Each structure stands twice: as structure tokens, then as C-alpha cells.
Fold each of these.
Amino acid sequence: MRAFRGIIATIVVGVLCACIVARGAPNTAVVSSSCNSRTYTAYSPYDFNLRQVLSYITYKTADSGYSAFTESDVNGDPCYGHGACYGGLTHPDCTSCLKTAASNLWDGCPMRVGGQIQLQDCRIRYENYPFSE
């Protein structure tokens, strides 16, 4: 009987853990966003650097402990960025959330040298100067 209770307890704990990890798609509801008023020129070095930063944040944040800082400085016009995900997300869900955040930034802060967006399960910030959060 004691062995049976142990097996049942193990199954219950396993199911509860699986429910916590497999919580479904990330919540990409926008909590807040803001844009720098300064702009950059299309196809400029800053445009290239921003694309590099957002790509790195989108695809590497989950692999970096769910928080990643990066910078790109090609041709002397640097861009700095930070991405973060809620730690309960799976790696694919973190990446998916950050893709949505990056897309929202492109649409919401066109040609701006800085912007940030907080979704329910992730966030991205980029600027033309170093920052910490």
C-alpha cells in the first residue's frame, strides 16, 4: 500500500510540473510601449545595427537565461538592446513572444533611434546609447 501511494504521489507531482511548463502560447498583450522622438535614415549604419540587435535579441534571449543585452556598432553608429522573457516560458514561446515584440516595435516606432515595448510575457528595448535595466 505504501508503494502504491508513492507511485500516485509521483504521478500527481509529474502532472503538476508538466502543467506549469506547458502553459500554452505566450501572452503577447501589450502592457506599455514608448518611442524616442529622434529618427534615423533608412539603409543607414544605424538601420543595419538595429536590425542586428533585434535579430540577436529575438533568437538568442531564450538561450541566455531569458535576459540578453547586446550591441552592434558597424561604421560608428551603435545600437544597444535588451530583451527579456518571463522565466516560465518555453524556449520556443520566449522566441515567439520576442518576435511579436520586435514586429510591434518596427510598426509602432518606425525609424526611431530608440524604443521599448513591454508585452505581458516579454520585453524589448533598444537605444542609440548604452543603458542598463
Amino acid sequence: MSYITIIEEMKKKKFAPVYYFHGSETYMVEALKQALITNGIEQDERETNLSIYDLEETAIQEIISDAETFPF
């Protein structure tokens, strides 16, 4: 699936069960990530339902613990 096709599907609120973004084009990976956030999570839900981590700075145990914690 191409970059443009994925963006268009996200705008239509048609999401795949899993996305794996990778590659040397950092701009495209960031654009896909932003499209997923913008189209997949309402603005008022982002504070409680969205977490973004840098695995170089955050221990995986902390991320797993956050994922297992129910939002309030």
C-alpha cells in the first residue's frame, strides 16, 4: 500500500488493525504517524488515550506498565 493510499484511507476513517511505519524517509513516517493521530483520536481524547515514547529514553517496562493501566 502506498503512502498516499494510506493517508486517504485514514481520512475516510478506515484503519488497519496494525501499522508498522519504517524507512529512511523520516518526513513520510512522521506524516503517517500524524495522520493516524489526527484521524484516529478525537482532540479531547488525546490527553488520556495517547502516549508516545522514545525507546532510547524510556524503559520498555514503563511503556508496558502504562499500556496495562486503565485510563480514568
Amino acid sequence: MSCFYRVRCPSCGNEQIIYSHASTTVRCQICDEILAEPRGGRAKIKAQITYIYGKKTS
């Protein structure tokens, strides 16, 4: 199931929202650190996830 994550950059602490199945490398908008890399399905998240949007809790 796809969703969005709010992640915190390990280098500068900036928070931004990224897609769980990102098809391109996602970088921090402040310091250019890699936050997520595509893996053919769910992206490999390299930052701390602080919140998950759209995850159903049933």
C-alpha cells in the first residue's frame, strides 16, 4: 500500500513529505542529503520517518 511519509533529514533536521514509492532519488531541499532511493517498488527511506499519511488502521 502506498502512502506519504513526513521525514526528518539526518544532516540538517529539515522535515519534508515524500512518497513511499518514489521512482527517483529524493534529496533534502536544504542540504541536498539523499532521503530516499528508488528500489523498483517501495523506496528505500534513509531518513527518520516522523509521520505516515494515508495509512489505514483497521
